[in-house]
């Protein structure tokens, strides 16, 4: 899945996760303090990478690259909020 965010200065970035587990940690339209966003996204990307390891026997380097990019980018923002713009695909609709 891909998710896009807006940083405190208005810059936008897009990131990849091999798992929909991102929806357990972030919400489209959600606003998170920079430190909170880094913690949530890092934990989610680590969990996604472990799901790949469990299924295929190796970690997902793309998930780790996304995590590292988020950490590097966040270092430029000592404060402010990160807004989640998109999460694609969305979670499947629940049957009623």
From TrEMBL:
InterPro entries: CHP04042_MSMEG0570. This is MSMEG_0570 family nitrogen starvation response protein. It comes from Microbacterium algihabitans.
